[in-house]
Structure formats: C-alpha cells, structure tokens
Amino acid sequence: MRFTLLKGSGSGPRLGRLETAHGAVETPVFMPVGTQGTVKGLMPDLLETTGARAILCNAYHLALRPGVEVVEALGGLHDFMRWPGAIVTDSGGFQIFSLARHRKVTDEGVRFKSPLDGATIDLSPETALANQVRLGADVRMPLDQPVPYPASRTETAEATDRTTSWARRTREAVRREGLEGVFGIVQGGVHADLREKSVSEITDLDFAGYAVGGLSVGEGPERMDAILRHTVRLLPADRPRYLMGVGYARDILSAVSAGVDMFDCTLPTRNGRNGTAFVRGGTLRLKNAVHASDPTPIDPGCSCPVCAGGFSRGYLRHLFLAGESLALILVSLHNVWFYQDLMAGIRGAIREGRFEAFWASCRE
Questions:
Q1: Are 29 and 55 in contact (CB under 8 A)?
Q2: Catalytic entry in 225, 264, 299, 341
Q3: Among the ranges given (111-125, 166-180, 254-268), the one the predictor scored with the smallest mean pLDDT
Q4: Rounded to two decimals, what is the model's pTM?
Q5: How far apart are CA 207 and CA 201, in angstroms?
Q6: Of 245, 241, 58, the residue nearest 140 (C-alpha)
Q7: CATH class of 2-265
Q8: Fewest Cβ atoms nearer than 10 Å: which of 34, 93, 105, 222?
Q9: Is 141 a residue whose pLDDT tops 80?
C-alpha cells in the first residue's frame, strides 16, 4: 500500500491517491459498507457503476459467519464477494461498543458471546489482525476500544490506554509478519488532552495510515467537529487519515475541510432500505403520501440509473408499500451514487482551488 499526497498539506482539504493491490483509490473517498461481504442490495458490477473503488467489510461479522476459514478457502474476500476494488476491514472494535451486552473486555482482548448461537469468541489484537490477513483485505484496522458519549473521563482514559496497548501488540505482529496496509486508530473521546496523548503514542508506532475513531457516538456534530479538528492537525501529513463511521454530507464536508481523506458509513444503504433518499440539501422520504402520484424522479439533476432511467417517486413509493425488494435496490443505488457524486465534486473542487465555494453551495 502506498499513499501519495497530490495537493494540500497537514491541514485543510487535500487530494491524495491510495494505491493498493486491487487498484488505486482517489481521496477524499467515501467507502460503502459491506459488513457481511456485500453492500446490501447491490451487485458488485452495479456498485462499480456508482464510482465506488473501495468498500469496508467487518472482520468480526465475517469471522462469525461464514468463518474466516471458509472465506480463505474460497479465494479470499475479493473472490468470495466478487469485488475487484480495494477492501478495508474493521477489526471488531466497534462491536465492543455496539454489542456491549455480549462482551467482556480485558487487557488481553475481548470475549464475545455470539449473538447468532451463543458461542464464545475470543478476540485479541493478534487474532483480529490475523483474521483480516486471512480474509485478504487491502487495509486492516487494529483492535481498539471506542466508548460512547457521555462516558466518564476515567472510562475514556482506560479505554484509550488499552487501545494504545493493543496497537503496540498489533505493530509487533506487523513487524514480525512483514505486513503492509495496517492503520493505527486514535481514541480519546471528547477530551482534547486524551486525543493528544493518543495521537502521540499511536503515531510513534509508525503505521501506514491513521484513523480517528470514537466519534459520531452521541456527542453531536458541533462537539465532534471541534475534537476532530483538534485531532487531525496533529496527525502526520504524509499518511492517509480516516474518519471511521461518519457519513452525513455535512460532516464529511467539514471533515474534508479539516484534512480527512477517508470515510465510511452505512447511511446510504440503510436509509435506502428504509425508503429515505439523499438529495441535494437533505433527504426525501419516499413512503410519504405526498409522493403517491409524483411523476418526477428522486432528483431530476441526478445521473444515476434510477433517476436518469425515469423511475418516479410515485413508483418507488408503490414498491415500498407493496413490500417489493426492487425498492430497496433502486433507492440504495441512488444513495450510493449520490455519495460518490458528492466525493467526485469534492475532489474536483479541491483540484481547482474552489473547495470553500463548493462547501458553501452544499449548505444552500
């Protein structure tokens, strides 16, 4: 893996190029989420038409089902899911937060009780990394411990220290195995001094890139923006910066202005399955009765196959109310296209030196 900064520096909007074994990815980039080895509702070739060149999968969920050994035997994650582009895998750190009822955290690692069959699963920094290597991911994330807002300062400090300890063990495994493409993750909650400490300790380990974790977990956009800006300016300028799990357009634009390069979120497909479409300036709730006889597409200015193909809001509402799965596919496709179009617009604006004007136009 190699990252080249093409325009920009340590702060402010940047253009970059992340080269992987499965193709180059232009940054800033938004990665659709394929938790279980699929971006829900979209065939890989259809996903490619949106402009997506990288996706995020979850190593924890894939280890549960179908099992790392199954994916490995079937040629690795790229062959398994027939996705030709880059794949980033999350370790399972987020599940420490999201599956709090099913886990016990110690300094050694995490013991999960599988929500599928109740089986005990032990995950350590070493096994989390080994799973991702066996899956064949291009970029791998270490095991970390995010905490939700408003966790106490004591709880946040303990989790941040544990994240650093696990990062050191991950880095030792990286050196021992001669691996590439492993990022470090910065934690610290909403506490500026804990973020500073985490940045110092994680960057000392010399990872290939750096992620900012533990945000968008209840702290609100203003607090998130402030701590993100404080954190990002401390990260090395020559490595990719990844804001994990953040996906609203307003947050992406603000984070890009602070110098973030990579994003992922389930919003496009999750909202698509629920009948909510992203459009310039907000969202459109297609199940609402006002759309029953509406002949217009989701967004008349959108070039995606759904809008350009003439599928009307009235038709899409009908599909949702009738329980037809085509509704989920069409709106998810539009939403992923919207996000890729947003990122292409961001990259073009940075390239041409007009990002601030582009950002302002998106707020209108």
A1: no
A2: 264
A3: 111-125
A4: 0.97
A5: 11
A6: 58
A7: alpha beta
A8: 222
A9: yes
> Which residues are registered as beta bridge partners of 210?
184, 241
Q: How far apart are the first and last CA of the chain?
A: 38
Would you kindly state where each structural domain of the chain is located, as residue ranges? 2-265, 277-364
Single-letter code of the amino acid located at 30: F
Contacts of 295 (CB under 8 A, 6+ apart): 312, 313, 314
- Active site annotation includes 117: no
Q: Give the helix ranges, DSSP H, for 8-107.
A: 44-49, 59-64, 68-73, 77-81, 93-98
Q: Which helix (H) or strand (E) holds 33?
A: none
pLDDT of residue 118: 87
Set 90, 138, 225, 341: catalytic member: 90
Q: Is 161 a catalytic residue?
A: no
Residue 43 Cα distances to 96, 192, 270, angstroms: 30, 42, 16
Q: Is the pLDDT of residue 97 over 80?
A: no
Rounded to 10 deg, the angle between the 153-177 and 192-203 helix axes is 10
> What is the C-alpha to C-alpha distance for residues 8 and 259, in angstroms, rounded to an integer?
8
The rounded distance, in Å, linking the Cα atoms of 84 and 23 is 8
| Side chain identity, residue 185 | I
pLDDT at 202: 98
Provide, rounded to the nearest whole percent, the portion of the chain with pLDDT above 90: 93
pLDDT surpasses 90 at 93: no
Measured CA distances, 310 to 85, 302, 348 (Å): 29, 11, 28
